[in-house]
Amino acid sequence: MQIGFYFDQTRCTGCSACRVACKDWHDVPAGQVNYMRINYTEKGRCPNVFVAYTVGPCFHCLDPVCMPACPVGAISKRAEDGIVVVDREACLGNEACDEKCLKACPYDAPQFGPEPGAKMQKCNYCLDRHLNGQKPVCVEACPTRAMDAGPLEELEKKYTRVQEAVGFSYSKRTAPAVVMRPKPERART
Q1: What pTM value is reported for the model?
Q2: Is 112 part of a structural domain of the chain?
Q3: 33, 103, 107, 116: most buried by Cβ count inside 10 Å?
């Protein structure tokens, strides 16, 4: 089984409730490290503007390129559910390995703090919650219900098989475990 995320771009307002809930749940201090990021796309000119948001967690790729990039094997993929996890104790830190996993990931999921020797950290699909049968905290925190999570096959059946959206490109190389409902761009006049 492979877990994944569903994201409905037509519902997201960019409120950052998912991002804040994630930081709170994982005790990530205020600052540059965000396991969940909100990407913003704006096109056009007033009065004909188009705005879309896209979430940016770790997409727990079917073929995560961060794994072989790690020189000490600190990144692994759980066989039972496809969640990509990090052994922070094994991680060499941002200075010793030159952040190779971050450079390899097309979605910038691996995060390093600014301090010397900071260890890699990222979204772990709220593994503790997952093991208790709960959805990731970002999904539960979303006030517009723009997100869902679960087995990828079930998400594809329930919602869609679309894998592209404004501001998000599906990498065939890594195969991120995500399905999208893209926001249609209105014709500008």
Answers
A1: 0.90
A2: yes
A3: 107
